[in-house]
Amino acid sequence: MKPINRFGEPPFREKQLDSGMRSRVDTFIVQSKGLSSGTLARAAEVSPDTIRHYEKIGVLPHASQTVSGYRVYPASAVERVLVVQRALRIGFTLAELAEVLKARDAGGAPCHRVYELAQGKLKAIEADIEALKRTERYLQKVLTDWEERTQRAGLGQQSHLLYSLSEGVKNAGMMAKHFGGKTDHESTDHNSFVRRAAIGGSRHAVLPRAQGAHESGVAASSRRGKTR
Q1: 135 and 192: one domain?
Q2: What is the spatial distance between Cα 228 and Cα 218, in angstroms, rounded to a whole number?
Q3: Is there a domain that residue 26 lies in?
Q4: Residue where a domain terminates, one of 29, 51, 81
Q5: pTM recorded for the entire structure
Q6: Ramachandran region, residue 200 (left: φ > 0; alpha: ψ -120 to 50; beta: rest)
Q7: What whole-number distance in Å separates Cα of residue 172 and Cα of residue 113?
């Protein structure tokens, strides 16, 4: 016999999202009216601020509102947020994702645009790898020089290791003048890298963004708001 409530009606049953591999929302409950922003955030493992930011810039379609004024999202919003998360991890920006997802929502097929953007990401990664390899070779030379300097200086004596880096830049400049403006390409590249890194101007001076860095802008904005 089916259970009934005190009004003689079967109890209200909430609908559960598919717990398959694509949803990642095994225990999250979705009522027929949709997902709240908090529930969507928990399902996608992001912050509510991230959900609001995604909607603001167009990565998520605008949520509908209940009569009471609560924002609700369809169950498909979970997959949309997860797609955005994965795309960010391979180098897409939120602006790029907003562009292609808006086109898709409007009925377009921005597949070629997505492919071109991904090709650009791969080329940038390859350039980063080459720059890091050159920097590795340069750092190996620096360490060899520093080892010799520390041995010559002796225990407790200053070796001026960091200041020796500027000597390499000066030497590269002198070589350029001596050889009519031409120097060994790799040495020049290393020294220019040092100069750029010294003023914070090299995009190769740091490793690629860690997983989850897509939320850093939202988090930083929240911190700034709290400190005001």
Answers
A1: yes
A2: 16
A3: yes
A4: 81
A5: 0.56
A6: left
A7: 43
CA distances from 24 to 46, 54, 82, 120 (A): 13, 19, 9, 30
**How many residues are present in the chain?**
228
Token couple for 145: 């020089």
CA angle 86, 91, 95 (to 5 degrees): 90
Last residue of a domain, one of 55, 81, 107: 81
The DSSP bridge partners found for residue 42 are: none
Residue in this structure with the two tokens 């609700």, named with its chain if needed:
72
- Res. 186: pLDDT tops 80: no
Nearest-10 Cα torsion for 218, 223, 224, 228: 140
Name the percent of the chain lying above pLDDT 90. Answer: 43
Quick one: which of 21, 9, 63, 22 has its CA closest to 40?
Answer: 63
What CA–CA distance (Å, rounded) separates 106 from 118?
22
Site of tokens 């939120």: 94
**Strand intervals (E) in 12-113:** 15-16, 29-30, 35-36, 64-65, 71-73
Judge whether 107 lies within some domain: no
pLDDT average, residue stretch 153-167? 85
4 located within any domain: no
Identify whether the C-beta of residue 189 lies closer than 8 Å to the C-beta of residue 113.
no
Domain count, the chain: 2
Instruction: Give pLDDT, residue 108.
Output: 94
- Transcribe 98-132 into DSSP letters: HHHHHHHHTT--THHHHHHHHHHHHHHHHHHHHHH
